């Protein structure tokens, strides 16, 4: 799951981020459709968490396991907090919060991959 | 006549642009907390001072996030203090880590003026203090 599946999640997050940024530019509050998009992303991330933990338990190679799970859990938590905080603001600022939550996902996923690959130094 | 000023309606720090600012602060609160928890639970003996500093940075971000989100008069004061500490922290730790480079590993979000986080930790306190002034 740290390979193609993770790349797919990055692509979905980038598309959602671009969509959110367009909505920010044309001055729209968070739409129902983009919240549905966030829910799809969330499902993919739950899959990443479950798949990642299974992959970790089957593996014997040396890497920071606690950090790996930490990043996977953070990936699942961020969109939920992001949407929760975004919908409280019925303006473009709410949509911008979604954009931030989506934009951070590629960074988070890449960190997951880096931790899986082993120590940085 | 100075008292009513205290109760004068102030623009909330948690709306408009502030909504986004709180989200970014929240991300840093999350990442700084995660980072210091890992450091303190797995390798605290390696660099206790740096890891305590890391935990301190996490607390500062959490306080800043919550107080900016609340945005009432008391929270504004708390936010101003927290963000001022954040500014001093990132400048001090940034400078120290530049001078003592090798003895100071990538231990905190403030190391190298936040270079590990795209220098956002350096910019954030300026934006935060500006926002508190702007919404006053």
Would you spell out the secondary-structure blueprint of this structure?
The complex is a heterodimer of chains A (121) and B (136).
Chain A: H1 4-25, H2 32-58, H3 65-86, H4 92-117
Chain B: H1 3-7, H2 17-43, H3 48-70, H4 73-99, H5 120-134
Helix pairs in contact in B: 2-3, 2-5, 3-4, 4-5
Question: What would a concise description of this structure say?
Answer:
The complex is a heterodimer of chains A (121) and B (136). Chain A has helices spanning 4-25, 32-58, 65-86, 92-117.
Structural class of chain A: mainly alpha
User: Termini separation of chain A (Å)?
Assistant: 24 Å
Structural class of chain B: mainly alpha
- Give the terminus-to-terminus CA distance of chain B: 19 Å
Largest beta-sheet details of chain B: none
Strand content of chain A: under 5%
Low-confidence stretches of chain B: 1-9
Number of distinct beta strands of chain A: 0
Total helix count of chain A? Answer: 4
Gross geometry of chain A: elongated
Q: Could you explain how this protein is built, in words?
A:
Chain A is 80% helix and 0% strand. The mean pLDDT of chain A is 94. With 121 residues, chain A is an all-alpha fold. The longest helix of chain A has 27 residues, at 32-58. In chain B, α3 runs antiparallel to α4 (73-99) and α4 (73-99) packs antiparallel against α5 (120-134). The longest helix of chain B has 27 residues, at 17-43. Classes of the chains: A mainly alpha (121), B mainly alpha (136).
Features:
heterodimer; A: 121 residues; mainly alpha; 4 helices; 80% helix; 0% strand; elongated; B: 136 residues; 5 helices; disordered N terminus
């Amino acid at each position: 799951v740290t390979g193609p599946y993770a790349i797919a999640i990055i692509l979905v997050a980038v598309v959602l981020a671009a969509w959110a940024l367009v909505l920010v530019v044309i001055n729209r509050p968070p739409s129902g459709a983009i919240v549905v998009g966030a829910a799809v992303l969330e499902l993919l991330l739950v899959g990443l968490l479950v798949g990642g933990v299974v992959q970790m338990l089957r593996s014997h190679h040396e890497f920071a396991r606690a950090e790996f799970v930490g990043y996977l859990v953070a990936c699942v938590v961020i969109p939920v907090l992001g949407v929760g905080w975004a919908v409280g603001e019925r303006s473009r600022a709410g949509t911008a919060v979604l954009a931030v939550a989506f934009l951070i996902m590629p960074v988070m996923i890449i960190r997951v991959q880096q931790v899986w690959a082993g120590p940085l130094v | 006549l100075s008292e009513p000023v205290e109760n004068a309606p102030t623009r909330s720090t948690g709306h408009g642009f502030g909504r986004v600012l709180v989200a970014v602060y929240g991300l840093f609160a999350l990442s700084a907390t995660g980072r210091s928890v890992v450091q303190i639970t797995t390798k605290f003996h390696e660099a206790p001072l740096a890891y305590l500093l890391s935990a301190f940075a996490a607390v500062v971000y959490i306080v800043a996030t919550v107080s900016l989100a609340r945005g009432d008069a008391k929270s504004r004061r708390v936010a101003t203090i927290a963000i001022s500490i954040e500014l001093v922290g990132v400048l001090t730790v940034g400078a120290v880590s530049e001078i003592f480079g090798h003895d100071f590993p990538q231990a905190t979000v403030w190391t190298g003026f936040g270079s590990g986080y795209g220098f956002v930790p350096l910019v954030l306190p300026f934006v935060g203090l500006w926002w508190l002034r702007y919404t006053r």
